[in-house]
């Protein structure tokens, strides 16, 4: 226990995170699992859970298979769609695409990715105040499937707009609550908890691996809409099996932690409708348009993050120690934004690079572009166990969270500099093995910075602001993802050296600055490592 406040020390992650989603869920108790999802639902597992007698799913509760399945198929559909999304937008109409300017298309992808993480805040709020985690998960899966169907069957930019809005909202809701539901399957001291989360994250990365393979092959051979259709079918399979199994989930998964009083429903609905009206008015008047979408998401996310910090730090309900810890979180927030602004370019710059620079020919056969997106999940599956073993072996000698964040940013910057030896080459000039190596470095950086992210966030959070602090973490990912899309407009395949050099060095500088500041940051964190 930490001497200063009695909190548990940071737990060792046992499975790969879904990017930022639920990165802390592998910590040791139900409260941490709840925090990792942005909801409080899993905190009831101290009295709930299915007990050690249910071992029907690889030694885990049978109900884990239900959540495992829906999450695996959701990741299949999410990454399958995202693997071909940018190509669909900037490929010419004659090639089956929409013919959108590539710079605008990359901005849209970034704005969409940022919106997914913004939507986790809405999903967490709905779970905490109105529906509970399990119901939000179920309804979110339906919304996701509807979004993929829209992409598959609706024509032109209308299908793109409707589809991306629905998938972003649904994915945010599912991402915010799936981990909380898993947490309710175990009693607080159930020794199988960590292994169960490891199995859960295996499903996440299996879906992320398979999705781009299937949708990419379909896009390459029969067209984009067949790929989007496969994503819709995958989500339908996941939703169907979840529909049959959800009745076996424990009542704790449906608990509404902080019910919204009935007399405030109308006000909440009014705020929601007003928000929708503002967006519609912005689109109609031309204030919101594809060319500036990433910038708008950046501004909105930054404003929300600043507001959250002001509310938490200025609260009279937190102690001086709590306030200091929130200040200690600010450097981690900044470095996390920088990390994700580079890491998420897998779906923007790396897609363009794979299209124009990468030699994808293997023994006379040309690999689909989107298959590059299946490389990272393989490395995550392999290396997450290695990292868990290393941190376990090091024990108290393991690096602190600020050190891990700093190292993650430095390694991410190095990954960008590794593009330089191949810069300026012509079509098919970069060997496939080079991208495999670079993505290996991407993954190592991710495992330094992503698994500890939400874990340390929940430890730094004041008691009254657990959900808000988790929301802040998701806002850092949303901001970084939107910036990734905005930055991609400056990528020029004909002049790559400045782009990779500047961004790589900025990331390295951020990491070094944090490592040099570890002592004062740890002092602000008041015993939390």
TrEMBL record:
The chain crosses the membrane at residues 76-93, 105-127, 136-158, 164-187, 199-218, 224-244, 265-288, 294-314, 326-343, 375-394, 406-424, 430-449, 470-491, 497-516. The keyword Transferase does not apply. It is found in: Cell membrane; Membrane. Signal peptide: none annotated. Its main location: membrane. Residues 1-10 have a biased composition (Basic and acidic residues). GO terms for molecular function: peptide transmembrane transporter activity. InterPro entries: Dipep/tripep_permease (IPR005279), MFS_dom (IPR020846), MFS_trans_sf (IPR036259), MFS_Transporters (IPR050171), POT_fam (IPR000109), PTR2_symporter_CS (IPR018456). It is a multi-pass membrane protein. Residues 63-522 form the Major facilitator superfamily (MFS) profile domain. Residues 1-22 are annotated as: Disordered. One of its GO terms (cellular component) is plasma membrane. Keywords: Cell membrane, Membrane, Transmembrane, Transmembrane helix, Transport. The keyword Transport applies. It comes from the Bacteria. One of its GO terms (biological process) is oligopeptide transport. Belongs to the major facilitator superfamily. Proton-dependent oligopeptide transporter (POT/PTR) (TC 2.A.17) family. PANTHER family: PROTON-DEPENDENT OLIGOPEPTIDE FAMILY TRANSPORT PROTEIN, RESISTANCE PROTEIN MDTM, PUTATIVE-RELATED-RELATED. This is Di-/tripeptide transporter. It comes from Microbacterium terrae.
């Amino acid at each position: 226990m930490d001497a200063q406040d009695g909190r548990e020390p940071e737990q060792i992650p046992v499975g790969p995170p879904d990017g930022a989603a639920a990165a802390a869920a592998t910590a040791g108790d139900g409260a941490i699992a709840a925090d990792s999802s942005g909801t409080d639902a899993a905190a009831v597992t101290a009295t709930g859970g299915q007990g050690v007698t249910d071992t029907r799913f690889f030694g885990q509760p049978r109900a884990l298979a239900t959540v495992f399945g829906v999450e695996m198929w959701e990741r299949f559909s999410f990454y399958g769609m995202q693997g071909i999304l940018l190509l669909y937008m900037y490929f010419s109409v004659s090639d089956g695409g929409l013919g959108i300017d590539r710079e605008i298309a990359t901005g849209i992808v970034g704005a969409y990715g940022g919106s997914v993480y913004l939507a986790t805040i809405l999903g967490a709020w709905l779970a905490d105040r109105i529906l509970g985690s399990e119901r939000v998960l179920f309804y979110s899966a339906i919304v996701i499937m509807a979004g993929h169907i829209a992409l598959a069957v609706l024509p032109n930019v209308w299908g793109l707009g409707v589809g991306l809005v629905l998938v972003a909202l649904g994915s945010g809701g599912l991402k915010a609550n799936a981990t909380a539901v898993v947490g309710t399957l175990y009693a607080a001291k159930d020794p199988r908890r960590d292994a169960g989360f490891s199995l859960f994250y295996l499903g996440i990365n299996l879906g992320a691996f398979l999705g781009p393979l299937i949708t990419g092959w379909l896009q390459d051979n029969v067209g984009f809409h067949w790929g989007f259709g496969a994503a819709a079918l995958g989500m339908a399979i996941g939703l169907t099996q979840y529909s049959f199994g959800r009745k076996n989930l424990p009542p704790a998964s449906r608990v509404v932690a902080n019910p919204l009083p009935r007399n405030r429903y109308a006000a909440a609905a009014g705020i929601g409708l007003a928000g929708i009206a503002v967006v519609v008015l912005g689109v109609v008047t031309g204030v919101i348009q594809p060319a500036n979408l990433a910038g708008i998401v950046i501004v909105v996310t930054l404003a929300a993050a600043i507001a959250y910090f002001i509310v938490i730090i200025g609260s009279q309900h937190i102690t001086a120690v709590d306030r200091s810890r929130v200040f200690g979180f600010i450097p981690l927030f900044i470095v996390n934004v920088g990390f994700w602004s580079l890491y998420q370019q897998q779906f923007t710059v790396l897609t363009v690079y794979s299209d124009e620079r990468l030699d994808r020919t293997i023994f006379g056969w040309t690999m689909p572009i989107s298959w590059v997106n299946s490389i990272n999940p393989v490395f995550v599956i392999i290396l997450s166990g290695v990292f868990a073993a290393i941190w376990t072996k090091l024990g108290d000698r393991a690096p602190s969270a600020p050190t891990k964040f700093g190292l993650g940013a430095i390694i991410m910057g190095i990954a960008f500099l590794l593009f330089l030896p191949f810069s300026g080459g012509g079509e098919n000039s970069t060997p496939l093995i080079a991208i495999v190596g670079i993505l290996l470095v991407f993954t190592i950086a991710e495992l330094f910075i992503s698994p500890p992210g939400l874990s340390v966030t929940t430890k730094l959070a004041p008691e009254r602001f657990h959900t808000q602090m988790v929301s802040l973490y998701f806002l850092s990912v949303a901001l970084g993802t939107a910036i990734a899309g905005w930055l991609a407009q400056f990528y020029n395949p004909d002049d790559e050296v400045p782009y990779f050099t500047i961004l790589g060095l900025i990331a390295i500088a951020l990491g070094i600055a944090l490592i040099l500041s570890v002592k004062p940051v740890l002092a602000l964190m008041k015993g939390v490592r």
